[in-house]
Amino acid sequence: MPKARTPEERSSDPAAVEVLKYAEEFGLGTAFSRADSMQPCPIGSDGLCCKNCFMGPCRVVKDGQTGVCGATVETIVARNLARAIAAGSSAHSDHGRDMAFTLKAAATGEAADYKIRDPYKLFTLADNLGVAVEGRSVEEIASDVADIAISQFGQQTGEVICVGRAPAKRQKIWRELGVVPRGIDREVVEVLHRTHIGDDQDPDHILDAAVRCALADGWGGSMLASDISDVLFGTPSPLVSQANLGVLKDDEVNIIIHGHEPTLSEMILAATGDPELIEYAESQGAKGINLAGICCTSNETLVRQGVASAGNFLHQELAILTGSVEAMVVDVQCIMQALVPLSENFHTEVITTSKKVKISGATHMEFDEHHALDIARQIVRRAIDNFPKRGETHIPDVSSDLVAGFSHEYINYALGGVMRGSFRPLNDAIAAGRIRGVVANVGCNNPRVTQDATHQYLVEEFLKNDVLVVETGCGAIASAKQGLLLGESALEYAGPGLREVCEAVGMPPVLHMGSCVDNTRILTVLTQMASEGGLGDDISDIPAVGLAPEWMSEKALAIATYAAASGAYVIMGTTNPLKGSEEVQRLINEGWREKFGGRLEFVIDPEEILQRTLAHIDERRAALKLPEYDASKWGESGDKRMLQLIELPFEERQAALYGEPA
Taking Cα atoms as reference points, which of 454, 621, 622 lies closest to residue 552? Predict the structure, then answer.
């Protein structure tokens, strides 16, 4: 059995360390301690175990060995990856389906508690889906938009509509390779069929189906999920909030919302502001009702409503361990079954709400969008009832301010204004070398590595190297807890070129773009950068890299695959589930680069991730014939530098501001 790690080895977050010490003192287990006590299966972790029929499971660990059916190592590893991608795609896309049905119910008046908060986003979405707008009510438009969105899931032929948003060159590549998704559900089903015993047995062919499935998510289900969430709850724009366990209140009813779908969390938020419920909380001895989030539900309410985040994936148990949480209200995805037995040591009630998710021992209060606010009020009242049962609390006095809410619409506005919104200033800054490139740092936490440590190390190093960082999901919350989502962090961490850009635009050097389903916003940003000109005409041309350094879920594999198929270089950390097959690793690296211009690699060492990322950015810069990155060109930033530049002759000033001509 491996040696148990200290709290400091388990997490780089001081709040987490404090609570983990408390857990150890009282003998309470967490995902960290379970990870230490359970050695991962070396055969399964390398992708070498096949459980797709019941002649096995087959473990192919010797040269030339095959499964009972004759399946080779390459076939088994490719099938395992494809099935994981299908599962991840189904999870995020099913989220999109639920949002589409909620939009339909809101449009027809069947879900009266939901309103169209952003009609302008609705009109844009309607235009993309081919829905007429002129002379029609918002409700009529929303109803038709919902119908078309819903149809994308069951569509059997043709193309998923949102594929048309990709750069023209990218669409041509997909069509020539035959990987344009026909319908979201169809592609998931086909992967499961192909990987059944006795079906597809060519690893490259299997992976083509996995790519098409992932694209159905990234340019289909997930993209629709983000769009419809914006229509119903508002398109994010920057706002100030806080993150970490210190946002919990010792004298208020604390409700944690955890999961992924904003339909529930938005109603819980509305209920916490109900004067009658606030009065009821005060009658139970509390000074008010405090709502905080965990994981991507946290991101959904954070970027739109400014609801504070209690932490990312590995904070869900830690929040309960503070003894201050009256109710943890969950819906779908990333919810640990361990929450229920842990909560039995405290007064916390775990409440499941989704038709798709029940946990033995938890309270189930099924959420129905048609009676949304009434059910939310019942949940909040139940949490208030638990407040008098609260015992001793251990809330770390640790939290960080943050600025979140950088939708692609807001970035476009921030760079160009209302009348001339444009990504041109960003492209120009990259072309000049002020910004070396862009990194999308996304993904989960994994208890087998030090929580947040790789996220923090990489983000800080990228900023030093003038790399702009955009983030979603638990990676974004990791940066929030470190104070990196503030404009001031540019002064402390950013290189001179990136610092100048941040000062000029008034933005942080790390942009929080939303939940993990909102990685589609990053696809949109990259597409708009390609369309703007100056950085090539496709996503694969842009000096950009996608990272998931602490990933753990099948959804992360689906995201990585659709990003790579869209032309991005993607690096995954933590573990390599394809280690058992050099051929499959070659196919998703060299093979995908030849096909799609993007590729996927699994790299464990953070320093190697850093070096490979910077090397790719510099390679893309060279291919575009941009000036070689040179931080020394930018010197001091801000007003002092501008005063110095004014004294220069015109040509020298232009060269200093915009870089030497190519």
Answer: 454
Query: In b/e form, how buried is each residue of 14-31, taking b as 16+ CB within 10 angstroms?
Result: bbbbbbbebbbeeebebb
CB atoms within 10 A of CB 97: 21
Q: Where are the beta strands (DSSP E) in 28-134?
A: 49-50, 58-59
**Residue 199 DSSP class:** S
* Domain span at 437: 402-548+601-656
293: phi then psi, degrees, rounded to nearest 5: -115, 160
Residues belonging to the chain: 662
Residue 9 covered by a domain:
no
Count of domains forming the chain: 3
| Close Cβ partners of 233 (under 8 Å, ≥ 6 residues apart) | 117, 262, 266, 300, 304, 305
H-helix or E-strand containing 42? helix 42-45
What is the C-alpha separation between 526 and 570, in angstroms, rounded?
14
- Contacting residues for 352 by C-beta, under 8 A, at least 6 apart: 330, 331, 358, 359, 362, 363, 364, 365
The enclosing domain of 627 has a CATH number of 3.40.50.2030
Q: Using an 8 Å Cβ cutoff, are 317 and 241 in contact?
A: no
Q: What is the CA radius of gyration of the chain?
A: 25
**How confident is the model over 160-209, as pLDDT tens digits?**
999 999 999 999 999 999 999 999 999 999 999 999 999 999 999 999 99
Q: Sign of the C-alpha dihedral, residues 186, 188, 191, 196? A: negative
Distance CA 20, CA 33 (A): 9
| Coil, strand or helix at 88 | helix
DSSP 469: E
Joined tokens for residue 393: 């609390």
Kindly state whether residues 88 and 146 are assigned to the same domain.
yes
DSSP symbol at 602: E
Which single residue is written with the structure tokens 């969105």? Answer: 149
Q: What is the pLDDT of residue 662?
A: 40
DSSP sequence for 530-554: HHHSSS-SSGGGSSEEEEETT--SH
Strand, helix or coil at 434?
coil
pLDDT tens, position by position, 245-300: 999 999 999 999 999 999 999 999 999 999 999 999 999 999 999 999 999 999 99
Q: What is the pLDDT of residue 661?
A: 46
pLDDT tens digits for range 474-527: 999 999 999 999 999 999 999 999 999 999 888 999 999 999 999 999 999 999
C-alpha span between 519 and 340 (Å, rounded): 31
In order of 5, 65, 337, 607, the CA distances from 9 in angstroms are 6, 39, 24, 18
Judge if 508 and 539 occupy the same domain.
Answer: yes
Cβ neighbours for 542, distance < 8 A, ≥ 6 positions apart: 437, 438, 526, 529, 530, 535, 536, 620
Contact between 12 and 24 (Cβ < 8 Å) = no
pLDDT at 233: 97
- CB of 353 closer than 8 Å to CB of 367: yes
Phi then psi for residue 557, to 5 deg, are -65, -40
pTM over 0.85: yes
